[in-house]
Write a structure and sequence with these properties.
heterodimer, A: mainly alpha, ABC transporter involved in vitamin B12 uptake, BtuC, 75% helix, 0% strand, B: alpha/beta, Rossmann fold, 3 domains, six-stranded mixed beta sheet, 22 strands
């Protein structure tokens, strides 16, 4: 049980990064279906950074913890933002259809990631780097099961939770956040009060993509202990992260709990499944089923509080009637 | 100092091949109310959008306080203290009123460089080294007091970015009691509104109040109101005008767009008239009359009198008994209403907006389930029939909602496509017949003088009034035997309104029964044969239009006079020569009890 919760919470960070990033993007009225590709891009960027850093060391078995983590995070964020920038350029400035652009970006991002990982990333030192990145608080072991569940994780897990809380606070209690929500709800209204709609959209897409990119990096470097075989796993997490946005009703603070629930559902097969692939496949279905159910409930109750941003997916032209 | 707040010179704006404004001039003085008058599509809204930064003029100059200015964005407009209240409110539905008012507020500028400069000026002028006389000797020492001053000043300069950050955080933070603080502002201007309320829970009038508070809160000196009265009740209009007058006394300049001439005469100091995008002239309100304004607006004299065609009444076509309908939120919208329409008769429905008119229309058209009662067309119950079957029976419904585009037309479709929406299934074979539809569209454009580049232009690109003509025109083209039309002239100019009245009269003389849900009592008194008054979903009585006064109707609309109680022995809304006998009616009612709904809404 402890082990289940421990790995569920650790695993939840993958979803949480992706989900928080997507929520931030969707709040600006842009449904970014490129998130899976962007998460792959973030993985490639982060891994590239780590590989280059490790290669530059004279003694690769003793990297500097702070430098390692910072380089990884920054590179992952940067690469993901660049991919997000492509999406933003196409959908915000050139007014392309968001769904098609997003899907194209996913195809592009996954291929791009595979290309980088196969050709430029030397993965020899990844297991060493992973032990550094994934190390928990030193006092965790002294606290028994409590420490195992809450304090044994790598820094990125806590970063994910902190980012989610900050984004939640930002959206709810700051005027800029209010402006961003207005852009997603009714860009015409936001424009009429002098909010620079395109600027808000660009920034939220870039930052949101960057945050999502950390999810892929976290998965490879922390959860999978430096193992990487193909983009397909990370892409799947990307789709789940988008589903999670609906599941948590576009609220990053709920996303913390939601991602843990998804995390439990995702790791559950490894604990109860045994060798029955049918059962584990069925359990893996649950997140999607739950998402559909949540959508159903939203639709039936019609609660105004739990609706997606009303301008989600719509392109904004100022001179349009 | 000049007293002119805003001046437009030779403004021209075109959209594709359509000229929206051509050489328009306008002068607005401080502390006055100017009416902008013009027919539909005469470019009033376009002109105002150029002042508020939504559009940019192709040619011409805008002067504010005598200075030439370029307004390229709404933000610019705000910087010049121009606030526009749009016809379609620019409010975020899921936000509270307070959040909508705060939205987009800019932090007061805090320049680090400026503040640093100021601090540097306070630096002591004395030299750092001071000479101390000690007897004969003059020794030089550091003046620690001056040094301290220097150090403190530079420390303060270093702290400036942090002060700025602090101020920003303080500004950016949305306090929980933000609504309360704004409420004080609202109370000061005399607005009665709960700022914690969400916009989607608000009435149109409340939304408008929020818009007005919003621009006032942001310090607007020039206010532009685009058809503010189109959706308000008479009482609300009175309240709005009081507020406008108060603002005028406070020195604000106001431009108001309206179609209603009596309002122009009542509220404005000056009137500027546009016709088909061209500037016609400006007159002082006190020197003019409604008639003169109408002439300037439409360019030719028109007959203000509406003919009431006299026809022979047929048997009742549509009969409704004891109808009760619930609204979307489950509250009762129509309660126990009975009425009937004969062929060759126009039955007017008067009532304050939101008194169940919409629900009534939808129920008859088969779009909304009913709670109780019976609806019979030529003796056959139509309760529970799908909308298509009801249309096939010859019942046509055209409802012009407040936003005009909401019901009946597909905004992205062309006029031709919209014409086909109801008839595409009529011809044989798997393909649609565009040729006939286009011919019909062309005929309609000609008949109703719809201004459009072509039959293939999406209707959302047409002006509001033209969109409406398309909808009403299509419904009548279908050749129905019962027409239900709600607000067919909402927002239309006089010429178009008369075109529509004439069409209705023409239909009436052909023996069609018409249910006319309207706003303007004068029009209804002239046009309708009988008028039913609704008040909060209750039937206040049905009166002959020729035997009732406007005041009486007003009393009934507000619920002060209930004829059904005064003349209890008279059975209002029950036809004596009904198609069905009383027993059959009871049967119909029982059948519909509890069910009677058409599920595919």
């Amino acid at each position: 049980m402890v082990q289940l919760l421990q790995s569920a919470i650790r695993f939840s960070a993958v979803f949480l990064f992706g989900c928080t990033g997507e929520i931030l993007t969707e709040k600006s009225g842009h449904l970014n279906l490129g998130i899976p590709g962007i998460m792959c891009g973030g993985t490639a960027g982060g891994c590239l950074g780590v590989a280059l850093y490790m290669a530059s060391l004279s003694d690769p078995s003793k990297p500097d913890y702070f430098a390692l983590v910072m380089i990884g995070i920054l590179m992952a964020f940067l690469f993901a933002s660049i991919l997000g920038g492509i999406y933003a350029l196409l959908t915000v400035s050139l007014k392309c259809n968001q769904n098609i652009t997003g899907l194209a970006l996913t195809t592009f991002g996954t291929g791009f990631a595979q290309f980088i990982m196969d050709n430029f990333v030397e993965r020899g030192n990844f297991s060493v780097a992973s032990t550094y990145i994934a190390q928990g608080f030193p006092f965790a072991q002294k606290l028994g099961w409590f420490g195992d569940i809450f304090f044994s994780h790598g820094i990125l897990v806590y970063l994910a939770i902190i980012i989610a809380l900050v984004v939640s606070f930002f959206l709810k209690r700051s005027k800029i956040g209010l402006g961003l929500r207005a852009v997603g709800e009714n860009p015409g209204a936001a424009d009429a009060v002098g909010i620079k709609v395109d600027k808000y959209k660009y920034i939220s897409i870039l930052v949101g993509s960057g945050i999502a990119g950390l999810g892929g990096f976290f998965y490879v470097m922390d959860y999978a202990q430096g193992m990487y075989d193909s983009y397909a796993t990370i892409e799947a997490f990307g789709w789940l992260a988008i589903a999670l946005v609906i599941f948590t009703l576009w609220r990053p603070n709920l996303a913390i709990i939601g991602s843990i629930v998804f995390g439990i559902l995702y790791v559950l097969p490894y604990f109860v499944g045994g060798d029955s692939s049918t059962r584990s496949a069925l359990i893996k279905l649950i997140p999607y089923v739950v998402t559909v159910l949540v959508l159903l409930v939203i639709s039936i109750t019609g609660s105004k509080k739990a609706q997606p941003p009303s301008a989600l997916g719509l392109t904004y032209f100022r001179e349009e009637r | 100092m000049s007293n002119v707040a805003l001046e437009l010179k030779n403004i021209t704006k075109t959209f594709g091949s359509v000229i929206a404004n051509k050489n328009v001039n306008l002068v607005l003085e401080k502390g006055e109310i100017l009416s902008l008058l013009g027919e539909n599509g005469s470019g009033k809204t376009t002109l105002m959008n150029m002042i508020s930064g939504i559009y940019y003029p192709d040619e011409g100059e805008i002067y504010i306080d005598g200075k030439l200015t370029h307004i390229t964005s709404p933000q610019d407009a705000f910087n010049y203290k121009i606030g526009m209240i749009h016809q379609h409110f620019k409010l975020v539905d899921v936000f509270s009123a307070a959040d909508n008012i705060l939205l987009g507020e800019k932090m007061p500028t805090y320049s680090i460089r400026e503040n640093a400069k100021k601090l540097l000026e306070t630096l002591p002028q004395e030299s750092l080294i001071k000479e101390v006389k000690k007897g004969e000797k003059v020794s030089k020492t550091l003046d620690f007091k001056v040094l301290g001053d220097y150090a403190l000043t530079y420390l303060k300069i270093c702290a400036l970015p942090f002060i700025k950050l602090g101020k920003f955080v303080q500004f950016d933070f949305l306090a929980n009691n933000r609504a309360k603080k704004l409420q004080e502002v609202a109370d000061k201007y005399g607005f009665e509104i709960d700022l914690n309320k969400k916009i989607y829970d608000m009435s149109v009038s409340e939304k408008q109040t929020v818009e007005i508070i919003k621009v006032l809160y942001r310090g607007a000196e020039i206010l532009i109101l685009d058809e503010p009265t189109a959706v308000l009740t008479p009482q609300e209009i009175k309240k709005l005008f009081d507020v406008l007058r108060k603002m005028r006394e406070g020195g604000k300049s106001i431009i108001i767009i309206t179609h209603k001439l009596n309002e122009v005469m009542e509220i404005s100091d000056k009137v500027t008239i546009l016709r088909k995008g061209e500037y016609i002239g400006t007159v002082e309100t006190k020197d003019t009359s409604e008639k003169e304004l109408t002439e300037m607006m439409v360019g030719k004299k028109i007959d203000l009198k509406i003919e009431r065609t006299i026809t022979d009444f047929d048997k009742p076509l549509l009969e409704i008994r004891n109808l009760s309908i619930n609204g979307d939120d489950g509250s009762s919208k129509i309660e126990d209403v009975s009425f009937y329409i004969r062929g060759g008769e126009i039955l007017g429905v008067a009532g304050i907006a939101g008194c169940g008119q919409k629900e009534l229309c939808e129920a008859i058209a088969g779009l909304r389930k009913i709670e109780n009662g019976a609806i019979c067309h030529k003796g056959d119950s139509i309760v529970g029939l799908p909308a298509k079957a009801i249309i096939d029976k010859g019942i046509s419904m055209s409802f012009i909602p407040e936003d005009r585009l909401g019901m009946g037309l597909a905004p992205n479709f062309s006029i031709t496509d919209n014409m086909m929406l109801k008839t595409y299934n009529d011809n044989k074979g798997p393909f649609v017949d565009r040729k006939t539809a286009r011919k019909n569209a062309e005929a309609l454009i000609k008949k109703l003088e719809i201004v459009t580049p072509s039959t293939e232009t999406p209707v959302r690109r047409l002006s509001g009034g033209n969109v409406q003509k398309v909808l009403v025109g299509r419904e009548i083209e279908a050749g129905p035997n019962v027409i239900i039309t709600a607000y067919p002239v909402r927002g239309l100019d006089i010429n178009s309104s008369y075109a529509i009245y004439n069409i209705l009269n023409e239909q009436k003389s052909k023996g069609t029964g018409i249910l006319f849900i309207g706003e303007d009592l004068d029009v209804m008194l002239a046009l309708c044969d009988k008028i039913m008054v609704l008040c909060h979903g209750k039937n206040m009585g049905i009166v002959h239009a020729g035997k009732v006064t406007k005041e009486q109707l007003g009393l009934m609309m507000t619920g002060s006079l209930d004829l059904t109680e005064v003349n209890a022995e008279k059975n209002y809304g029950i036809a004596k020569d009904s198609h069905l006998t009383e027993e059959q009616w009871e049967e119909e009612k029982e059948k519909t009890e509890g069910k009677g709904e058409n599920e595919d809404e």
